Each structure stands twice: as C-alpha cells, then as structure tokens.
Amino acid sequence: MSNELEGEIALVTGASRGIGKAIAEQLAASGATVIGTATTDGGADNISAYLAAMKPSGGGKGMCLDVTDIDSIADVMKAIKDEFGAVSILVNNAGITKDNLLMMMKEDQWNDIIETNLTSIYRLSKAVVRTMMKARKGRIINIASVVGLTGNPGQTNYSAAKAGMLGFTKSLAREIGSRNITVNCVAPGFIDTDMTRELAEEQRQALIGQIPLNRLGEPADIAAAVTFLASPAAAYITGETINVNGGMYMP
C-alpha cells in the first residue's frame, strides 16, 4: 500500500476490534500515524501492539477514551498533541447498540445511544476543528449505518442517532468547507463482525438474502472507503455518504 497519508495524524475512535481496527490498520498502512481509542486500558494496549507491528509504514498507539466524557476527550486531545501533533484526520467510529421495541425502551437505552453515537461526534469534531481550520486542512469521517437511511425495527434509538449523523455531516461540511476541510460519512451495511457471528445461522442467511452481492461485508470494505475519503484523491468530496452495503440499499 502507498504512503499517501504520510505525515497525517489520524484519530480513530473504537479501534480495538472489528471495523475500527480495520480502519486504523489501513490508515497506518497508508503512512498515517494512527491513534486508536478503546474504552479500557487493555483495549488500548492491544491497539498499541498491532500498530507497533505495522512500522515503518505508519504506526501510532492506543489510548483509553470515554467518548461520552468531556474531560476524557480533552485529556486525549492534549496527549495526542503533546506526543504527535494536531489531529488532521478524525474518524468517528465508536458506537454501541441497545436494541428494544419503542414501547419497551427505557430512557437510559435511548439516552445512552444518543450520547455515545451522536453527541460524541459533536464533541470530538469540535475538539479538532479549530486546529484543522488554522492548518487549512483536515478530514472528518463519520461511520454511520444503513439503518440510518432505512430504519430497522427495534432500533429507533440507533437509527435516529445514525440519521442524525448524516445531517450533522452535511451541515458541518457547509460550515468548514472553505477552510479545505472535508466532512463525509461511510454507511456500512451488514458486516461480518463479532456481533453478526453471534447470530444463528438462519438469521445470518436471512440477512444475506437481502444483499444482492450475496455475502456479508468485511471490515476491510469499510476501511477502504474511509482510507479513500482520507486520501488526496477525495479532496473534492464533502457532505457525502458512501454506502458500503453490497447493494442492500440503493438510494
């Protein structure tokens, strides 16, 4: 893989496994210095280990971050700046699910999803945008979901957060585009991760039956789209959502 991102400092939230890990690895393979975050020290150590193994292409380290905590975000931003410099690529990937039918959904199930999946991108984007504007360069890439476009029974909270991310992305793209900062989304479909592997085989086949390409996506498929948006080749793309879903949703 080329070193087209050499000199860039990338922050990837939720990078200990699955899609986030694949994104961090591909950005590092393209030459970026990557800071991946996890919610535990063990997760952060795991990120440091796999990024260290990627040198000399990129490298970086893992850090512990609670994306719902303002002080935690401030501490991580300071640590990154002190050790590596200002973040030039932000990938808002961290997210959780707490599925339930609306009539049975508790307040905390709604609030936790909105706080983690939507409010966090406001806080993290705000934390990096000032330095990006001064540098007149930056990439913000938000990991949305096909259900933010289609809806999904039992996921009113998650779907609302991901749909909100799409509107946030377009609005911020209009605000800061004049400073050469692009803001885009990648919306994964059904991806082969720990969560989908826990499904019964009948459920997996039902999911695959909705996909024209007749397979679940791989984390690397999402990482490829993110790496493209972070690259010089995507310099004239902003406010867009790239759907990576095997054709299950075609807007």
Report how far the terminal alpha carbons are from each other.
31 Å
Radius of gyration: 17 Å
Q: Structural class given helices, strands, pairing?
A: alpha/beta
Mean pLDDT, all residues:
96
**Strand order of the main beta sheet, please?**
3-2-1-4-5-6-7
Any overview of this molecule?
This protein is an alpha/beta fold and 251 residues long. It has a single domain (9-190, 219-242), classed as NAD(P)-binding Rossmann-like Domain (Rossmann fold). The chain has helices at residues 18-29, 41-52, 70-83, 107-135, 147-150, 156-176, 194-197, 201-208, 219-230; strands at residues 9-12, 33-38, 60-64, 89-92, 138-143, 181-188, 241-244. Helix 1 crosses helix 9 and helix 3 (70-83) runs parallel beside helix 4 (107-135). The protein is globular, with a radius of gyration of 17 Å. The protein starts with 8 loop residues before the first strand and ends in a 7-residue tail after the last strand. The model has no long low-confidence stretch (mean pLDDT 96).
Describe the structure concisely.
Strand 2 (33-38), helix 2 and strand 3 (60-64) form a beta-alpha-beta unit. Helices cover 46% and strands 15% of the residues. It is of the alpha/beta class and 251 residues long.
